[in-house]
Write a structure and sequence with these properties.
The chain has 2 domains: 277 residues, Ribonucleotide Reductase, subunit A; 49 residues. The protein has 14 helices and 4 strands. The longest helix has 31 residues. It is globular. The two termini are 32 Å apart.
Length: 356
């Protein structure tokens, strides 16, 4: 198993993994709630109200339930390394889902703006369901995340509201692309569905898709966020989200191959879907098909793996190795950031359908 993926055997290991802070781990966020309170949705009132009506209809209200006996009967015994990668996937997923739940709930409590308050109420509901459903699956292995303890003890990162909008939009959309790609693969090859949780991915990822639509509307209603100097931030978050996924997925090669997916092929398929979706709101996109861009991501992965080896080695030589790989990784990220982007006009029709 990769040195980037620590062993998960006990509840303490689970909590340690959930609290991990590094460049590819999910984070908890706080923001400027007054600025969130000032978001104006009046320019897109009709689209906004239609979306809130969908949330109120709650077509997934019965989706996150399970027959425990039937569910557990489908859990296969996994080789040790695959089991560790799958557990790491579950812990990372629950941390990410619960991060959204905590952030959305804090915004809900601290804003008076009825548009934002209503949305955050619905988003909190959905992310809470997701986190608890994953936690239930961890408990099948005698593990689980203490979510109350995690909320109280995990470090929080401050993000300006515009960073929250960029990053969360991309997180929700790339989450959709990941889940639907896995779901379609296992729909075609049910013999590779080694755990029943994958059966829930289609409607689950449609929640993620709709969450992203909410943030798309918020950004399109504040058009200054999508032009001028702010496009430099859009470019940064596009690269950061893609690079994080690329490095993280390559720490779990057995997980992907067990589903009949190669991490490299899987990631670029997900990038293609996310890029196509994000044209609804971002007037720029990354050229992920460029050989030089792909070579840069491979170099970034090598730097991350070298850093992990240096950390595992310890001592003076280990620290020197970490520093060298950190510098090389930062330089590679800058080169990727400066890589030419594609430009296009924003569509008049903002919302898109989850058609992948």
């Amino acid at each position: 198993m990769s040195t980037l993926t620590p062993s998960i055997e006990t509840r303490d290991h689970v909590m340690q993994r959930a609290k991990t802070e590094n460049l590819i781990s999910p984070r908890f966020y706080t923001t400027d709630y007054e600025a969130m309170n000032r978001l104006d949705m009046s320019p897109l009132r009709a689209e906004w109200e239609a979306m809130l009506a969908e949330y109120e209809g709650d077509n997934n209200h019965d989706h996150f339930t399970r027959d425990d006996e039937a569910f557990r009967s489908e859990i296969r015994e996994l080789p040790p390394e695959l089991r560790q990668e799958f557990l790491d996937f579950l812990v990372t997923s629950i941390t990410s889902e619960y991060s959204g739940c905590v952030l959305y709930n804090e915004i809900r409590k601290k804003v008076d703006n009825p548009d934002i308050k209503r949305l955050m109420t619905y988003l909190t509901r959905d992310e809470s369901r997701h986190a608890n459903f994953i936690n239930h699956s961890l408990r099948d292995y005698g593990l689980g995340v203490d979510l109350v303890n995690l909320k109280a003890t995990k470090a929080y990162t401050y993000f300006k509201p515009k960073y929250i909008l960029y990053a969360t939009y991309l997180s929700e959309k790339i989450g959709y692309a990941r889940y639907i790609t896995i779901y379609r693969q296992l729909e075609r090859h049910p013999d590779k569905r080694f755990h029943p949780i994958f059966k829930w991915f289609e409607r689950w990822c449609n929640d993620e898709f709709r969450h992203g639509e909410s943030f798309a509307l918020m950004m399109r209603a504040q058009p200054h966020l999508l032009r001028g100097f702010n496009l430099l931030w859009v470019r940064f978050f596009l690269l950061a989200v893609y690079a994080t996924m690329y490095v993280r997925d390559h720490t779990r090669p057995m997980l992907h191959r067990a589903m009949g997916l190669e991490p490299e092929e899987f990631d670029y398929r997900v990038f293609d879907i996310t890029t196509e979706i994000s044209k609804q709101v971002f007037p720029i996109s990354l050229d992920t098909d460029s050989p030089s861009f792909r070579a840069g991501l491979s170099k970034l992965l090598a730097c991350s793996e070298g850093f992990a080896r240096g950390k595992a080695r310890g001592g003076l030589m280990g620290r020197l190795a970490q520093a060298g790989h950190a510098i090389a990784g930062a330089a590679t990220f800058v080169r990727l950031y400066l890589h030419p982007v594609k430009r296009h006009d924003l569509p008049a029709q903002i919302r898109v359908a989850p058609a992948w």
